[in-house]
């Protein structure tokens, strides 16, 4: 890969990671809303997800064994459960805990699925295009939703999301 | 800056989503949704503007160097693409179509041979030159192109496509690189000239009744006290007219032998090169058909590279089909042949008709040489010798070298 191509690829990966992180931070904020004690802080969550996405992309790009794949799926499930349990909540009954854990696990698995597609086909323009309405919808739902959310960083996040979408679409088209 | 009339635009931006976000922003008045709606609107505008201007002020040109080659050589197709507008192009795809007979130099298995693809991003006011070697394995005249350009908006939602219909040069190939030299053309008899050359002064002799007055050498006459007439070196015309017969059979309208035609073309090309290299004027008459124009080509007598190129070009584009019997065509040309010119008939076979035509040309004061690919019957050869027509047959070595 030429230097200019690798630079473009890196820009594409970072842009896509930012888009996915913003989208999943909003989704986490949504699923945390019903039982959470405090609204989920979106900025640190987004940064954490950007880092996790880049690490996972690097890990998933390597052709691994079946056992390694199972480990990644299991770890993601575990992280989903951990986040659901560790985030401060109201006193919840068993059904609410079960519902909370299941929604967090579903979000975690959807996140893993998105990251896998990013790791294996980052240059696909159609993937970048599909990520735009997904993230925008998540942001919009969090913004107009009735629950309490950390709304302060939503505008900068929306701005960053628009910019990252433009970069991802443009670079994916030229790199495809 | 206008879009090109030949541009074809495909793809569309999902403007419904923009309207949805605008509606949501208007209803909710949530700042983040407003940002998203404005972002979507700006994106739509960027897609529309850059999509419409994608191929505007983009010029492409294809040149081929050299445009006359030996078969098997790799001419270079140079594609020059200029983006004259200040807007950059994040991607530009180009496809250079190749005619049948022209192919990429080393096509990978399974890859198409009919075109070459390439692409790159372009900055504003940038000029990119791409050099693509192509392979022309067989003799012929080929046109490369057209060139198809594809570009799109900055975000990739729409694509514009244009096929550049410009005149492309035709690479020419003559398959005769290894042909051994043909000795008959070395017979440049100048001992008996048909016309005296006034530039070649040889001496004087005593004046005889009937000598032209302008030929009297006055200074020598005064010195010798007797009228002296100038003498000149005898000279012969160095003009060579090549009569190329492509009809391999007597029934030329039914059958054709492409292999024999190739040999004839190769031999004729070599002979023409030798003649041109010796400084002769060369011309070409054939009963074959030009593969591109479907007409019977002809090269007027001339000296220099242009005449040589024209003759080789005719040979390169010559098909294996004849428009008429060689004797008919060549005798019809008799009135247009320069007086005293050497006639070289290159033919796949020699029949009685063509032999009689050669004799007729000899009687019209032309030196005639027949170069045949096939054997000449002994009786016919004897008849030609008696009539003063030289003849020669391509040796098997020369034949194998030519193919």
Overview of the molecule:
The complex is a heterodimer of chains A (176) and B (403). With 176 residues, chain A is mainly alpha-helical. Chain A has one domain (3-175). Helix content of chain A is 80%, strand content 0%. Chain A contains six helices and no strands. Chain A has helices at residues 3-32, 42-61, 66-86, 94-120, 125-144, 154-175. The longest helix of chain A has 30 residues, at 3-32. Chain A starts with a helix and ends with a helix. By secondary structure, chain B is an alpha/beta fold. Chain B folds into three domains: 1-174, Immunoglobulin-like; 183-188 and 237-402, von Willebrand factor, type A domain (Rossmann fold, 3-Layer(aba) Sandwich), CATH 3.40.50.410; 195-235, no CATH class. Helices cover 27% and strands 31% of the residues of chain B. Chain B is built from nine helices and 21 strands. In chain B, strands 17-15-14-19-20-21 form a six-stranded mixed β-sheet, sandwiched between helices. In chain B, strands 1-10-9-5-6 form a five-stranded antiparallel β-sheet. In chain B, a hairpin with a 6-residue loop joins strand 9 (147-152) and strand 10 (159-164). In chain B, helix 1 (15-28) runs antiparallel to helix 2 and helix 6 (326-332) packs parallel to helix 7 (352-363). The longest helix of chain B is centred in the first third of the chain and has 22 residues, at 31-52. The two termini of chain B are 54 Å apart. Mean pLDDT of chain B is 81; it is low at 173-194. Classes of the chains: A mainly alpha (176), B alpha/beta (403). At the A-B interface, helix 5 and helix 6 of A face helix 1 and helix 2 of B.
Q: DSSP helix count of chain B?
A: 9
User: What is the 3D shape of chain B?
Assistant: elongated
Order of helices and strands of chain A: HHHHHH
Q: Structural class of the secondary structure composition of chain A?
A: mainly alpha
Number of domains of chain A: 1
> Mean pLDDT across all residues of chain A, rounded?
87
The unreliable regions of chain A are: none
CATH C-level of the largest domain in chain B: Mainly Beta
Q: Assess the beta-strand content of chain A as a share of residues.
A: under 5%
Radius of gyration of chain B from CA coordinates: 33 Å
The quaternary state of the protein chains shown equals heterodimer
Largest sheet of chain A: none
Order of strands in the sheet with most strands of chain B: 17-15-14-19-20-21
Structural class of chain B: alpha/beta
Computed CA radius of gyration of chain A, to the nearest angstrom: 17 Å
Number of domains of chain B: 3
For the largest beta-sheet of chain B, the strand count, sense and barrel status come to: 6 strands, mixed
Order of helices and strands of chain B: EHHEEEEEEEEEEEHEEHEEEHEHEHEHEH
How much is the average pLDDT of chain B?
A: 81
Question: Largest interface, per-chain counts?
Answer: A-B, 26 and 23 residues
Uncertain residue segments of chain B: 173-194
């Amino acid at each position: 890969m030429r230097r200019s191509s690798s630079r473009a690829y890196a820009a594409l990966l970072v842009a896509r990671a930012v888009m996915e992180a913003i989208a999943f931070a909003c989704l986490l904020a949504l699923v945390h809303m019903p039982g959470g004690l405090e609204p989920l802080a979106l900025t640190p969550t987004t940064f954490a997800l950007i880092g996790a996405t880049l690490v996972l992309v690097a890990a998933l790009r390597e052709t691994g064994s079946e056992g390694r794949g199972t480990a990644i799926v299991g770890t993601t499930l575990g992280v989903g459960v951990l986040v659901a349990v560790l985030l401060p909540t109201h006193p919840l009954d068993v059904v609410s805990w079960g519902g909370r854990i299941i929604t967090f696990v579903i979000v975690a698995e959807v996140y893993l699925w998105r990251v896998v597609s990013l790791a294996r086909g980052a240059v696909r323009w159609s993937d970048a295009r599909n990520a735009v309405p997904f993230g925008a919808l998540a942001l919009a739902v969090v913004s107009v939703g009735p629950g309490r959310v950390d709304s302060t960083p939503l505008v900068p996040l929306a701005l960053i999301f628009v910019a990252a979408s433009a970069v991802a679409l443009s670079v994916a088209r030229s790199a495809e | 800056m206008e879009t090109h009339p030949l541009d074809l635009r495909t793809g569309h931006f999902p403007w419904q989503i923009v309207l949805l976000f605008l509606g949501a922003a208007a209803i909710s008045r949530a700042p983040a949704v407003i940002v998203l709606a404005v972002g979507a609107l700006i994106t739509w505008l960027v897609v529309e503007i850059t999509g419409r201007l994608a191929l505007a002020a983009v010029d492409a040109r294809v040149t081929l160097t050299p445009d006359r080659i030996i078969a098997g050589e790799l001419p270079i197709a140079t594609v020059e693409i200029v983006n004259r507008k200040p807007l950059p192009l994040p991607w530009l795809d180009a496809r250079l179509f190749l005619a049948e007979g022209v192919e990429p130099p080393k096509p990978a298995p399974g890859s198409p041979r009919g075109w070459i693809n390439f692409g790159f991003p372009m900055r504003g006011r940038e000029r990119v030159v791409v050099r693509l070697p192509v392979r022309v394995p067989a003799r012929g005249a080929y046109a490369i192109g057209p060139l198809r350009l594809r570009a799109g908006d900055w975000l990739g939602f729409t694509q514009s496509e244009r096929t550049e219909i410009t005149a492309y040069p035709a690479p020419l190939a003559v398959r005769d690189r290894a042909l051994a030299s043909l000795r008959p053309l070395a017979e440049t008899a100048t001992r008996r000239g048909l016309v005296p050359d006034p530039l070649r002064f040889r001496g004087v002799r005593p004046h005889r009744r009937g000598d032209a007055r302008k030929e009297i050498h006055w200074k020598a006459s005064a010195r010798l006290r007797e009228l002296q007439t100038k003498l000149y070196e005898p000279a012969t015309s160095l003009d060579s007219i090549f009569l190329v017969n492509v009809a391999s059979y007597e029934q030329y309208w039914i059958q054709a032998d492409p292999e024999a035609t190739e040999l004839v073309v190769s031999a004729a090309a070599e002979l023409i090169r030798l003649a041109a290299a010796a400084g002769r004027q060369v011309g070409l008459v054939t009963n074959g058909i030009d593969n591109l124009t479907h007409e019977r080509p002809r090269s007027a007598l001339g000296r220099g590279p242009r005449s040589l190129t024209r003759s080789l070009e005719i040979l390169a584009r010559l098909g294996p089909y004849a428009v008429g019997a060689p004797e008919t065509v060549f005798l019809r040309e008799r009135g247009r042949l320069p007086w005293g010119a050497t006639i070289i008939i290159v033919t796949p076979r020699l029949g009685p008709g063509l032999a009689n035509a050669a004799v007729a040309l000899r009687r019209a004061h032309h030196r005639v040489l027949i170069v045949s690919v096939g054997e000449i019957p002994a009786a016919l050869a004897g008849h030609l010798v008696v009539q003063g027509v030289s003849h020669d047959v391509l040796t098997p070595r020369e034949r194998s070298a030519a193919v």
